[in-house]
Amino acid sequence: MAIERSRGDRVYQWCNNALLAVAIAVVLYPLIYVLSASFSSTRAVLGGRVWLWPVEPSLLGYQTIFDYALIWRGYANTVFYTFFGTIINVVLTIMAAYPLSRRDLVGRNFFMFLITFTMIFSGGLIPTYLLVRELGMINTRWVMMIPNAIAAWNVIITRTYYQTTISDELLEAAQLDGCSDARFIWQIVVPLSGAITAVNTLFYAVGHWNAFFNAFIYLNDDRLFPLQIVLREILIANDIDLELTGDVIDDEARQGLRELLKFSLIVVASVPVLMMYPFVQKYFVRGVMIGSIKG
User: pTM (2 decimals)?
Assistant: First the structure.
């Protein structure tokens, strides 16, 4: 039996749906516009004739990207940083969070204070740069993975997740069977914590994929540039050597190709993250909410 709603409830529901529809349109339209422009011709993009659907459909932007060596190199570097950086992040987060979840760890409140302190205060950019330089990581791949190897917030929610899902009785039973702490972590804790591990993996992977600040500050060698720096050069500095992208006849066509490449490259840079999200989306609510029940 359907529950009859009052007039006020119906008005509220209508207004709520209308506001949500407007919000969705505001969020989706730029994405649709970028996607449509990337499949349009240079004349349509340069003339501002693209509004919702592709105009004079063309794959010129994507063909040019595939022929542009710097983009491929930046793509390969980003994949490298994301893959190995995420592995380092997740392993270190687990290694930090599990001991902090143990009630028998001496001084764990002090260690948690130190970790939380870093969320509020930091040494600043110049001291950090000097430290990275003294460690010899300037213009190396390590500078994209080591300085941000662990996130304090991820450690906190992972520790809380372990506290709420890994019982003391399970640890005691494993210890009675002669299980060491290291074996307990990798053979029991990690398999039982797929939700929070998946959430951490996505958070870290997206962070690495979109990272540009460390590369902008610490890298001078364009052979090490990630894709986001290449994207920045095209979008902001408007710096792209069209002599390397094929035969373009006149200045108007060159300018149109520059604009087209911006939209095509945004799509190419966003697709991997969009493809990865559906595989871990089901873990999001369960992983984050369970890890946020207790402080």
Answer: 0.78
